[in-house]
Amino acid sequence: MEFKAFKMDSLGNDFVIIDQRLENFDLTKEQIIKICDRKFIGCDQLIYIKKNQNTDVSLEFYNSDGSQSGACGNGTRCVAYFLSKENNKKEISLSTSSGNLNSKIFENKEVETEIGLPKLKWDQIPLSKNINTKNLNLRLVDKENKEFFGGIAVNVGNPHVIFFLENIDNFDLEKIGPKIENHNLFPERCNITLAKKINNNLIKVKVWERGAGLTKACGTAACATAVASNLENLSNSKTEIQFDLGKLLINIDNNQSIHMKGPVSEIKEINIKL
Question: Which terminus of the chain is less hemmed in, N or C, by CB atoms within 10 Å?
Fold first, then answer.
């Protein structure tokens, strides 16, 4: 099997995009895993673009372990830019399993997507039992064997748990990530963010994504972190989330809807042979 695809990224969070409007075929889980493997093509997530009668297109997201994801903020913004180059539109509507998402295209490859309202109730995250979502009382151990208990749960199309810490570099996220992701509190697994407040308008983060592992950036993690920070009165409604390669601007409007804005890369066409 040989076919054309595209590669894009936002702040190093990278994607292989397959346009199924051209040729409608489905890859097996094993083929998705192979494409995502950095020894072959390599990406954090694989995205299908499909025809849709009610929006510009519909999207399906797959993690690097072959599992399907309900949402991908940076991937959505990348596809919105991809479509804007195709049809010269500045506003793009995309259908996902988590709902319809509207995006606006700005100068310098900046794209803003309205993610919508967060889900904060225990059964919306979902959690396996009814506990306080603002303090999950999950245990972390840092590199000096000091314990920390906490965790705030937020769903922004997929489940996230956010830990606000004094020093995120003191924690080995590669070791912590799999344990929290697969904790029995999360029946659908979860994404993990370690966050440090710099000031009321800036939060620095590190992210572990379910099904993908450590990633250089994650749009929904940025959104979830901003929501959690807002709930704890740690930041303003407009907050920058700092990753290693740059920032995403998250704005929570008066209706509590989340807007995410940031850069995307140019589009690279690739050829995949399986």
Answer: N
